[in-house]
């Protein structure tokens, strides 16, 4: 019995990070698969009949939660569990606690699968999980924060590298944001509920996905390029800029509602001011890459990371632009917004997480990846699939916007976007296929006999970095 417990709640160094990565990959297949089926139902409404669990509203809720809480969040925790001990030159404070948290997180996703696909929801966008699952997520976040904070307190280096600032900030902000954003903990009537809902909906992006993702970029780029970070001062300016300007921006999602004008003004102005930390971050990234762009041709983890930085640039230019009042009025309630959401989560943060997995797993396991060809196939399927999705949703959104603006009947302009919904479905198939190749490559890497030179190669790369 004790041996089973030791395997489930292993105390082996690196096991918590590895297990979070594997769990993230598992749930990415379910979450992206649900999104693919939901996307296909737009152009083929009769694709699934008489299965209420596969109706689009149910699929959409599960897709969002499986991708955000399953794939991205679990992958982020796996990355942090590897990167923080490396930067602190110490071990993770408690591997066993990390593995216990991993199993609890998986139970949350099993609960999400059972409840959301059956329509059991709290009815707040991005915060659909029920009360029991909300409590479990909040506890898991606190346990992750405890593990990371204690690891940093036990560090063997004096100076905190910028990635550690981003990770510490994220694990302080996000548990608070999560608790405020769930009706389990904070339930308000009427319009106040919408204000709180979008405070959460936007800050899960800004105080979790962005801050952890940027911290991962700061970790990966110098190591993959073997070049020092361009400016530590710029990186800290970006960190405090995000901390200062991001929190009030959520109300720009509901500018057409009777929210107090002062709250709308703060949201729009803060959204514009976010260009300041964004420019500091991107300047740092691109100057660190100066003279080394050619490395992305042969270094596949670096290619994923550089692609993520490019999508981050587009995301952060597009976001403040569409937060301004007239543009927001014109584009709201269209497929453009869906494209923008995928630009951030799929384009920026899923690519940087893929880079982190490809970089970290060989160092955690001592095994090189089974197939470089599968990594290339994953990259191109994901990259081209995303470009097709983003392009089709953007064009469809502009067609919708014009239809609303010129008072064209919905039954007329909606016919014009059917081809773009079809292309969106094709793009989903490409992305899911790429993710399956990713998962297969990881499985073959971990569960087939490694080549004799694989472990020394991974170890040497870590020492060199």
Provide an overview of this structure:
The protein folds into 3 domains: 12-156; 159-331, Cytochrome C Oxidase, Chain A, CATH 1.20.210; 333-465, no CATH class. 77% of the residues lie in helices and 0% in strands. The protein has 18 helices and no strands. It has helices spanning 2-8, 15-43, 56-88, 95-116, 131-153, 162-181, 190-225, 232-245, 261-273, 275-288, 295-298, 300-323, 325-331, 335-365, 372-405, 410-416, 418-447, 454-464.
SSE inventory with pairings:
Layout: H1 2-8, H2 15-43, H3 56-88, H4 95-116, H5 131-153, H6 162-181, H7 190-225, H8 232-245, H9 261-273, H10 275-288, H11 295-298, H12 300-323, H13 325-331, H14 335-365, H15 372-405, H16 410-416, H17 418-447, H18 454-464
Helix pairs in contact: 2-3, 2-4, 2-14, 2-17, 3-4, 3-5, 3-7, 3-14, 4-5, 5-6, 6-7, 6-8, 7-12, 7-14, 8-10, 9-12, 10-12, 12-14, 12-15, 14-15, 15-16, 15-17
What is the CATH C-level name of the largest domain?
Answer: Mainly Alpha
Helix content: over 70%
* Distance between the first and last residues' Cα: 41 Å
The CATH topology of the largest domain corresponds to Cytochrome C Oxidase, Chain A
**Main β-sheet: number of strands, strand sense, barrel status?**
none
Task: Assess the beta-strand content as a share of residues.
Answer: under 5%
Class computed from helices, strands and strand pairing: mainly alpha
Instruction: Work out the count of structural domains.
Output: 3
Q: Helix count?
A: 18
**CATH architecture tag of the largest domain:** Up-down Bundle
């Amino acid at each position: 019995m004790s041996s089973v417990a030791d395997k489930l709640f292993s105390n082996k160094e690196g096991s918590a990070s590895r297990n979070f990565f594997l769990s993230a990959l598992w749930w990415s297949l379910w979450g992206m698969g649900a999104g693919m089926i939901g996307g296909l139902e737009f152009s083929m409404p009769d694709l699934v009949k008489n299965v209420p669990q596969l109706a689009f509203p149910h699929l959409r809720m599960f897709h969002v939660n499986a991708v955000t809480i399953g794939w991205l969040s679990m992958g982020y925790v796996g990355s942090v569990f590897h990167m923080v001990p490396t930067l602190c030159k110490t071990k993770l404070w408690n591997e066993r606690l990390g593995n216990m948290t991993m199993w609890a997180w998986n139970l949350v996703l099993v609960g999400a699968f059972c409840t959301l696909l059956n329509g059991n929801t709290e009815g707040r966008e991005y915060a659909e999980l029920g009360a029991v699952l909300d409590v479990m997520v909040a506890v898991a976040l606190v346990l992750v924060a405890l593990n990371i904070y204690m690891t940093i307190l036990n560090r063997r280096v004096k100076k905190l590298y910028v990635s550690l600032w981003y990770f510490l900030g994220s694990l302080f902000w996000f548990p608070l944001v999560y608790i405020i954003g769930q009706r389990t903990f904070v339930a308000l009537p009427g319009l106040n509920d919408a204000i709180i809902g979008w405070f959460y909906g936007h800050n899960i992006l800004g105080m979790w996905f962005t801050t952890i993702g940027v911290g991962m970029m700061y970790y990966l780029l110098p190591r993959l390029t073997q070049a020092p970070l361009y400016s530590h001062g710029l990186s800290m300016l970006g960190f405090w800029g995000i901390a200062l300007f991001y929190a009030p921006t959520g109300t720009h999602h509901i500018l057409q509602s009777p929210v107090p004008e002062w709250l709308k003004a703060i949201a729009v102005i803060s959204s514009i001011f976010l260009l300041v930390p964004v420019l500091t971050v991107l300047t740092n990234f691109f100057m660190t890459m100066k003279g080394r762009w050619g490395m992305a041709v042969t270094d596949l983890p670096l290619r994923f990371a550089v692609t993520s930085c490019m999508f981050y640039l587009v995301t952060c230019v597009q976001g403040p632009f569409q937060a301004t009042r007239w543009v927001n009025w014109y584009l709201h309630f269209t497929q453009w917004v869906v494209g923008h959401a995928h630009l951030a989560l799929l384009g920026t943060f899923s690519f940087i997480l893929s880079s982190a997995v490809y970089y970290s797993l060989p160092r955690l396991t001592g095994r090189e990846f089974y197939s470089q060809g599968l990594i290339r196939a994953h990259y191109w399927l994901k990259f081209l699939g995303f470009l097709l999705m983003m392009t089709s949703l953007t064009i469809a959104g502009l067609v919708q916007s014009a239809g609303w603006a010129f008072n064209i009947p919905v039954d007329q302009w909606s016919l014009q976007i059917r081809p773009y919904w079809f292309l969106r479905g094709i793009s989903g198939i490409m992305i899911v296929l790429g993710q399956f190749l990713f998962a297969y490559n990881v499985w073959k890497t971990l569960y087939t006999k490694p080549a004799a030179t694989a472990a020394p190669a991974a170890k040497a790369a870590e020492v060199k970095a």
